[in-house]
């Protein structure tokens, strides 16, 4: 019988991953903190690929639609420990009205089918809460679970809120974690933080005060709650704003003008009751993306990369749970 490995050595073990639909790399960054090093990172958008290369030049980045990816042409991904991805937001079948709206489901199916070709130990996918919670997605869940079980994996579903993991934002996502037999019994979902998340005022206060705006102190006191979920919007329609009418009203109650993104922080000559617009950098702070993580592209492209991202602390929390199961 082999001798048990010392706990310190087990904790230091790192894992190999394949990151698909990577966006700006925020999820991969969180998983890196949890012990996962990507052997390949894939996204279809050139600005997002450039963002990842800008921040992690040592990562191999492939700018390609995942439905066209052939894992056998990239042997380094075969048998990785984890396939992970934040997939495009799937719409209920009954509401799909345009050919392009079906693209998200096509990507979801491609991601699930990768499991049989790559044979990782685990899968981690993030999407809209309705994918797990809504009866409109019951056929999708049944197909996903049947495919995974046929391939030898056990599916686990959970909706988590980023606010429960230190992110100043009410952002709920569904997670699918699937594991092979030896690891399933050891898996458990991460527990929420014991401390409440910081408020918008606490997170953005220093930046709002940076240019001596006289209303900064008053604004910080009024922004005494977490933010609504940032909405990246569609690449096919519209510009950069803080989401639909309900989201903009929620931002207005925090003293923020959500009609568009700002170019500069509030200046000293603005009135005290001014409602500033968020800059792209401030949006990244609401997502708990590190300040040194740079984004490539124009303002709208950079904001969409941020709005579509999974906050790294949430990715790290789920990643630690998967890593603990794989280390068992």
Automatic annotation (TrEMBL):
Record bears the keyword Membrane: no
EC number: 2.1.1.37
Keywords in alphabetical order: Methyltransferase, Restriction system, S-adenosyl-L-methionine, Transferase
GO molecular function terms listed in the Swiss-Prot or TrEMBL record: methyltransferase activity
Record has Methyltransferase as a keyword: yes
InterPro entries hit by this protein: C5-Methyltransferase, C5_MeTfrase, SAM-dependent_MTases_sf
Protein family membership: Belongs to the class I-like SAM-binding methyltransferase superfamily. C5-methyltransferase family.
A Pfam family reported for this protein in Swiss-Prot or TrEMBL: DNA_methylase
Uppermost EC category: transferase
This protein's name: DNA (cytosine-5-)-methyltransferase
A biological process from GO: methylation
Top-level taxon of the source organism: Bacteria
